[in-house]
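Researcher: Good morning. I'm working through a list of sequences from a screen, and I'd like to move beyond sequence-only analysis. For each chain I'm collecting a predicted structure so we can compare shapes side by side. This is the next one on the list. No need for commentary yet; just the structure.
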Amino acid sequence: MRNWTGQRVLIIGAARQGLALARYLAKRGAEVTLNDQRTAEQSTGAIESLKGIPLKWVLGGHPLELLDQVDLVCLSGGVSPDMPLVVEAARRGIPLSNDSQLFLEAVPCPVIGITGSAGKTTTTTLVGRMAEAHVQLPNRAWVGGNIGTPLIDQLDQMQPADLVVLELSSFQLELMTSAPQIAAVLNITPNHLDRHGTMAAYTAAKARILDFQPENSVSILNRDDSGSWDLLPKVRGKLVSFGFERPDNGATGTFIENGQLIWQSAGTTTAFLSRSDILLRGDHNLASVLAAGAIGFAAGFSVEAVAAGVRGFTGVPHRLQLVRELRGVKYYNDSIATAPERTCAAIRSFTEPIVVLLGGRDKNLPWDDLAALVHERVDHVVVFGEASIKILAALGPVRPQRRPYTIQHCGDLETAVEAAAEVAEPGSVVLLSPGGTSYDQFNDFEERGEAYQLWVNRLP
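Model: Good morning. Structure tokens for this chain:
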């Protein structure tokens, strides 16, 4: 394991990943400087969480002097490599890294890595549940990364017979030169173009989970998604796939047939679930279950462990989460939908009349496909937040006798909840599935989802 004693490390970004990495490195003798744009007053929670840990705080800006006599610069997920401080570090030849890269360099047990534009949190959670059913005590399954808890500062507790299930974002992957032994790319569709600039750059970031895999690795790709399937030439080891139709020529993977989810390998097929066992709404969630099954079988899980991971699972928080039913109206929290494509998937999950809440901050993504679906499937639209003008332009004006029957523009989410409640009729669904990020009004999608739940539960 790498010796950190006396290593001078600058960490940019004092959010979850930066704080976890600071704890890990400082405890191992590194000289850590933690830098964030926010002021000390805005960072009281972060500062308190690292109380007693020896490190230096530099807050309120990113001065270039921070790079003087630095051995390594680590970026939190929300920090762009294009920011001046990072560009200057690269110009000076200072190595760049992040918590996920350092974790993979040091982890003592096998790792399953999962990335994708959509569905990775649900898939990671499902695989984590399968892993917990598979791993026998005293060994343990660990689930984290871009979901839940960064695992870097829990390395000391991990044993060689444990198993890690790691969700990885494009932000994390774009700096990484290590890869997990089992890696899944669920799909690649337009997302985070405000950060990556082009689809080519975004795809290249996702593909890094395959680029650095060892030759004895396993790669899982989606037969039904061209963005994922086009990465086939990058597979260095064994290919396992998933999709709705049976894979050609007896290839290894999962599919669904006659209401049964099936695993095919070495010329044999095994039914591992009935579609009726899946409590999640929508075909996009069915795809996530097929992906999780493919990953689980690729990792050597039993049929019983794979099935146990799915049965009884009602979804992750903030993903099509039922908040309450009030006067015959069901309110759903899908705050995790931060791209228009994910809002489309959410809308397709319902047959009931829909009131949808759209907004947040745009990621430089097209809204035209979502607008077309809204005109086909949605009765009422409430638009809020920073992206409102772009969304309203994509939707166009209300047309007599055609969906959506009303479009309302609200300044913030709380007002939008009240407006949605006014137009919702018994038997309908009010769906927060914004299509944009939360950063115009909230720290993250979790905070936005919790605020939505609070305001929904306050409705009289």
